[in-house]
Amino acid sequence: MHFIAVVLACSFVALSGASHEWGYPDLDSNQDEPFPNWGGLCDIGKKQSPINLHVKGALKGEFPSLEFKNFDEHQKKLEMVNNGHSIQLSGFEHELSLSGGALLGDFVVEQIHMHWWSEHTINDIRYPLEVHIVHRNKLYPNISMAADFPDGITVIGVLYHVSNQPNPAIGSIIKSLDDVKKYSAMNKPTKVKDSLAVSDLLSSVDGYFTYAGSLTTPTCAEAVTWIVPTETFPVTLDQVNEFKEIEYDEGKQLHNNYRELQRENNRAVVLVQTSQQKSAAALQLHCLSLGALLLLSLVANKFLF
Ligand SMILES: *[C@@H]1O[C@H](CO)[C@@H](O)[C@H](O)[C@H]1NC(C)=O
Ligand SMILES: [Zn+2]
Q: 13-29, pLDDT tens digit by residue?
């Protein structure tokens, strides 16, 4: 009996030890430092994330609209943790659910974390910050189980662009960062001081890319339906720099935590646009042809008279 307990304890230590072994190159110290191999599916998978999302290479898609439930509820009991790889929020009071779009079934928000710089790029452009809103398919009892199934997880990847205008939602996360920045506070969840509604992080989803990919951290499970809105939101570089101060080891700061781009391997990347965006595009086209007509008639007038 004791023997079993010891073996179990040892394998637990070995497992949790292993989770600290993977990491990111410190690109602030050496921009040529290669991204390490994380092993397993991370190295041999064929549907890995992140990827570059091209508007031109995407397939046009039409789906019912995404349905967000409780995303605008003010969360008053959120917890924040520095897990050595990111800053993660959890402890949502009301069940936040996502359905519709190309999704089959209901997904609930499990946790939110961030990457600095962005993991996905759009038209080869990298953004300073990407927030991941991680959802579990309600069919499965927990996220580790969900990671075993291709329809197990949906992640909304929200991109932020550089601006002079501080982002209030990111600002309210930053307010609690000091409590978790130090290595001594790593893996110790603390209460988030400000209340925050998840909808503050993405005011709307007008159009988005969607594709089948993976978690961007080990185990790199290929269980993720990605949703990356085409609209990006403002953040200042000063705000992003606050995240770069979190420690993953004594005196060592996590200067960047994005994974390098993965091979697309001829996967379908679908671009879904809302009817609003489409009518805006149609209006532009309409105006363009009206303009052309006007020009034509002017030219015709000139020649006729
Ligand atoms: C997830 O759920 C399965 C099935 O109920 C269970 O065996 C497993 O221990 C759970 N894992 C975690 C991490 O809670
Ligand atoms: Zn992530």
A: 444 444 458 999 999 99
Question: Is 297 close to ligand 1, i.e. is its CB under 6 Å away?
Answer: no
Nearest-ligand number for the alpha carbon of 140: 1
Residue 43 one-letter amino acid = D
Evaluate: CB of 15 within 6 angstroms of ligand 1.
no
Sign (positive/negative) of CA torsion 110, 116, 119, 125? positive
Residue 92's closest CA among 70, 113, 107, 114? 70
Give the residue, by CA position, lying nearest to ligand 1 atom 14. Answer: 142
Q: Which helix (H) or strand (E) holds 9?
A: helix 2-21
* 12 CA from centroid of ligand 2 (Å): 24
Cα–Cα distance, 282 to 56 (Å, whole number): 18
Q: Enumerate the H helices of 127-274 as residue ranges.
A: 143-146, 168-174, 237-243
Q: Is the CB of 29 under 6 A from ligand 1?
A: no
Q: Are 269 and 59 in contact (CB under 8 A)?
A: yes
- d(CA 175, CA 204) in angstroms, rounded, equals 24
Q: Give the residues of the chain that fall short of pLDDT 70.
A: 1-20, 275-305
Q: Give residue-wise pLDDT tens across range 124-170.
A: 999 999 999 999 999 999 999 999 999 999 999 999 999 999 999 99
Q: Which segments within 138-229 are labelled E, that is strand?
A: 153-162, 190-191, 207-213, 224-229
pTM above 0.90, yes or no: no
